[in-house]
Design goal:
single chain; about 575 residues; alpha+beta; Penicillin-binding protein 2a (Domain 2); Beta-lactamase; 2 domains; 5-stranded mixed sheet; 5-stranded antiparallel sheet; about 40% helix; elongated
Length: about 575
């Protein structure tokens, strides 16, 4: 007989079997899903670890490249660079890049031909090859203009596309080429301030430089004019604040457009202002004379026998402007006597002169705000002959900026100057140094001598009406294949103004000038570099706010030492008529 209890047991057991079967099915399905997921992950790892890396490495490289591009997009915008007056000289803008997806290209020949009419600088062979590869993505062109971008869009090919990137732009093109420097396509500073302040700028912070756009224009114009006039190889022009060491203008020519830095020639990229080192000739007489006055405490009447050349070892020291008589300190300086300067160095002594030059920063690499720095070439070993020759600038090579800063230290009252490209003085860039190199008296005596050279000596063509400028010329033969070449010269001038209380130092160097009809065939500093300095000062006096109507020729500081000049044509002579 049927038992209802049995019926309930059968029903319950049946339901349990059904539920168990359903659960087992679900677990099986879940297990399959897990296995499938693990297989997908394993295949992906295999793809990333083996296939992409070893079998198709270009795909892995392309992925990395795309990831870098994305990272570049979200990176901080590079900071701007300004001149001291707030003029923008370097900035960053967004610029489109054109890419192609080769797998979507139907006809590479046709597409390349269409793009060539829009993008004349595109490498057609390279573009055609890229379109035929198995790559998922490839760059075709950079820095597309808005008009070009619109024309590409009108082609309407789905294989083409654009991505924006940050592009460094230099509104003044070549004007600040060597001081400002440039970046790579990916925004890495490669030279100049862009390189030395890369971390600051890459972090989005702005930098303000000591350079003055207006002064830079004037200096570049006049140096370039001299290069053209004398068919010279190159040139340098500098204006330096005599107290703070701020570089107000710094030009190295030839230069190059920073917006197209990749097209620059090596001779254009080379920074002659800080990286190039040269024998700058008689301008070194500024330092040997200052050393004599400071260390030996001699008077202006100290005499030196310049009647005969000096023979020391293999060296023979002659005078270009031979006077063939005994000269005192002002005469040695005014006539730029090599013999007299050599005897001055001998009187100072080798170790003392070497230490003096070192204190002026002439023996070591320049401590400056860019990394393109040349190391001076000094006599090794330093013999007695070295002491005599470096006294007039023979046998010691230094950069034009080092020379300029050293002269500032001599004429500004005797305080050490550290040159800088930063406009705002920080703790390590004091506006006025407290390190004294020479006494105020020696500094004043040197100003008088420098003024004398302009009014009566080799730098008369640097004389500026209404502005008392003092300075020194330097003409040096270049070393070619280990020997001095008489027809390849470095012609330079360094000066200070207003010379009674110098505020600015000016330096001009012209590399390998050739004489002209107007210069009577001469290519020396008095004919080549001194006039450039004059034209620069004339151009910038109003910019600097200097008055040209306050100069009194009867109060000229050179008058104090004019009586020491014993030559008949100079004795008792007043200042040049151009001052009257």
């Amino acid at each position: 007989m049927w038992n209802s209890g049995q019926h309930k047991s059968i029903v319950i057991d049946g339901e349990r079997r059904i539920n168990a079967s359903i659960a087992q099915s679900r677990l099986s399905i879940l297990g399959v899903c897990f296995v499938a997921a693990y297989l997908v992950m394993a295949l992906r790892l295999l793809d990333l670890g083996i296939v992409r890396t070893y079998i198709f490495p270009e795909k892995e490289n392309q992925l990395v490249s795309e990831q870098k591009d994305i990272a570049h997009e979200i990176a901080a915008r590079r900071g701007d660079v300004y001149d001291r007056n707030g003029f923008l000289i370097a900035t960053t803008i967004k610029s489109p890049r054109l890419y192609v997806k080769p797998s979507m290209v139907l006809d590479s020949e046709e597409l390349t031909a269409k793009l060539a009419t829009i993008l004349p600088n595109m490498n057609q062979d390279k573009a055609r090859k890229l379109m035929r590869t198995n790559k998922d993505f490839a760059w075709l062109a950079y820095d597309i203009t808005p008009a070009q971008q619109q024309q590409v869009l009108e082609v309407g090919d789905p294989a083409l596309g654009f991505r924006s990137h940050y592009k460094r732009v230099y509104p003044q093109e070549a004007l600040f080429a060597h001081m400002l420097g440039h970046t790579s396509r990916d925004g890495l500073g490669l030279s100049g301030i862009e390189r030395s302040f890369n971390e600051t700028l890459a972090g989005g912070d702005d930098v303000t430089l000591s350079l003055d756009l207006r002064l830079q224009h004037a200096v570049k114009r006049e140096v370039q004019r001299a290069i053209d006039e004398f068919s010279a190889k190159a040139g340098v022009g500098i204006i330096l604040d005599a107290h703070s060491g701020e570089v107000l203008a710094g030009v190295s020519l030839p230069d190059f457009d920073l917006n197209h830095a990749g097209k620059a020639k090596p001779c254009e990229e080379f920074n002659r202002m800080t990286l190039g080192v040269y024998e700058l000739g008689s301008m070194f007489k500024i330092f040997s004379t200052a050393a004599l006055l400071e260390l030996k405490k001699v008077g202006m009447d100290q005499s030196f026998d310049a009647r005969y050349p000096i023979k020391i070892g293999r060296h023979r020291i002659d005078d270009y402007h031979a006077q063939k008589r005994i000269l005192n300190v002002p005469e040695v300086f005014m006539y730029s006597s090599n013999i007299g300067a050599a005897l001055m160095g001998q009187m100072v002594g080798g170790e003392s002169l070497k230490a003096f030059y070192k204190d002026l920063g002439l023996m070591d690499a320049l401590d400056f705000d860019i990394k393109e720095i040349g190391r001076p070439i000094t006599p090794k070993p330093w013999r007695e002959s070295s002491t005599m020759t470096v006294s007039y600038g023979h046998g010691l090579s230094t950069s034009p900026l080092q020379m300029t800063a050293a002269v500032a230290s001599i004429v500004n009252g005797g305080l050490s100057v550290r040159s800088t490209l930063l406009v705002e003085a920080e703790d390590d860039y004091p506006i006025k140094s407290d390190v004294r190199l020479i006494s105020e008296k020696t500094s004043m005596d040197m100003r008088r001598l420098l003024r004398l050279v302009v009014t009566q000596g080799t730098a008369k063509k640097a004389d500026v009406s209404g502005i008392a400028i003092g300075g020194k010329t330097g003409t040096a033969e270049k070393i070619i294949n280990g020997r001095y070449s008489s027809d390849k010269l470095i012609s330079s001038f360094v000066g200070a103004f207003p010379i009674d209380d110098p505020r600015y130092i000016i330096m001009v160097m012209v590399d390998e000038p050739h004489g002209t009809k107007e210069s009577y065939g001469y290519a020396t500093a008095g004919w080549v570099a001194a006039p450039v300095a004059k034209h620069i000062v004339q151009s910038i006096v109003s910019i600097l706010g200097l008055s040209t109507d306050q100069y009194d020729p009867n109060q000229d500081i050179s008058l104090d030492i004019l009586p020491y000049i014993h030559d008949k044509k100079h004795k008792g002579k007043q200042l040049a008529s151009s001052y009257r």
